[in-house]
Amino acid sequence: MANIEQLAVNAVTDLIGRCPKLSDYIASNDRTPVTDGHIDVHSSEKKSNSTLVGRVPIQVKGRATDKKIKQRRDSIKFPVNYEVLRFLRDDGGGIYFYVSMLPDGTKRTVFYAVLAPYKIDRILNGKGLDQKSFSIPFKRFPQDASKIQTIVGYALEGRNQGKTSGFDGNLLEQMQSLTIYSVDGINADRPTVLNLEQNDFAVTAHTAGGLSLPVDIDLTVYPGSYASQGLEVAISCGEIEYLDPMIQFSDENTGCIQFSKGLALNFIGGANHSLETSIALNLEGSVRSQLKDLDFFLAARRGMPLVIDGVAQALFSATDELKGQPEILRDKIARLMELFDAFGLDDTYIDALELTADDKRTLLTLHKAIVRGEEVEATSDGIGRYDFPIGKFKIVTLVTNGSTEGHKRIIDPFDPGMRAKLRIYSSVGDSAVEEAEWGTVYEPMNGEDLANTMNLRLNGIVRSYEMLEDRQGAISTANQKTLDLIAAADSVEGARRDYLLDGANTLCEWTVACGEDTLVYKINLWQIARRRGRLSAQDKRDIRTYRRTEQQSSADNAKLREACLSILLEDYEELDLALESFTEADLAQIRSWPIWTLFALS
Questions:
Q1: SS3 assignment, position 262
Q2: Listed range (203-212, 382-391, 447-456, 586-595) with the worst mean pLDDT
Q3: pLDDT at residue 250, rounded to an integer
Q4: Which residues are 72's β-sheet partners?
Q5: How far apart are the first and last CA of the chain?
């Protein structure tokens, strides 16, 4: 049988050995508590006592697995014991290596995590004292010697964090500069976001008094071309006001005040403090911001003065790059916003829409039919459900004959005002069609429908289930629809994902408030929170309490619930133990639930 620990150490030392300024001292089967050795960092390739810069403790864990690590996989999660994290934090940090290999010792893959004190603090912050291990992301260790030396150098820099108990916020007033040590470097062309929970970097603050102290902060580093700043004044025209717009100078007399993506005020300073201004409009950004931009622009074009920090300023000129009259465009955009507001769509979701000219024409027709309640001209004889495509989304409607030939009524089935007027029918196999009093208008919507339909009006979904006469049946049906919404959210991204999770959360809170099987519904609430990274320390304590109860229970589905709770905690060792007792039917069932996606993506 292969000596896994020895092979793991060899895999690490082989890579460290490529680096001319590093020396490793790592023992296999080492009896030293916590660490397995260290790496010495030298300032020169001529290694000697005089060139020794510092020493980085390391820990090496080897694991044999039958599953081959995919070459394209750049990261993996691995549990690290609390006592190891606590020691490394208090000792100044180090590097933790995880080496995966096949049982015969081949296909060795080295992953690493630099565990500096501030990063460990982030990992442990808010966690329960009874948590014995923490699942930590490990990155694939590079093959290139210069990259390896950079990683070890960062770990050495991080050890300075163990020499201070924190950073005094009052010293920020004296701070003159920051030094950033980043493993991935700083991009010179676009902003670099540095978040300690996702990136490896260390920051040192240098004060006017000559102090240099490590600081625990996240940063966004902007190139010089991004050096715009907030203008701490209000600027208005007519009834429209922008607070704290951004200002950027081209030279000492020329610059631009950017109100939004599509509206800017260009200015040129002249003699005797004179100021020539011109406002430029180009419709960009969200539909709501376009409407605001147009109102500001039209007020300026009518001759209304600019009011800058309470002082009126004559406008030199107002130009636009629009194809069409601004007044007409403003009317169309206002109608679009009325329709979106009727659907209950928030600005974040609307911002993500990419509307073509055909999409906008369709939406204006639907505004006439749904918001104004007017019949529209139509050449088709068909009636029933009709889905209007809007980019990658759609609007689901019911089409009926109008009062006159060649006209149709278009109905939004999710409109709260239509609930008492619509009936849901269903049939099973060849059985007769019967009214489905147990369901709502949401039941006919499959996963793809939920993922892509714009007019679901999820802000009112609870009321649809509250209106069902069979309360227990309504709760059960609502719980299934919660799962459908979560699954649909997993198939999309961005604002659409947030929109579906909001709806699922609202519906799930209702089932928790009035349902009997509270744990099942709470698991759904927790898995929504887990998807958003919002599981609190109290949530995790509650989950552990419930899991202990389920582990001792002989009730039906107790093992299923225990497995779900372990997934929520990312405790995959306990999950593996629970799955060992599962039947094929149990495995098929849990794998069909959205919570399994959390495990599959881990």
A1: coil
A2: 203-212
A3: 67
A4: none
A5: 30
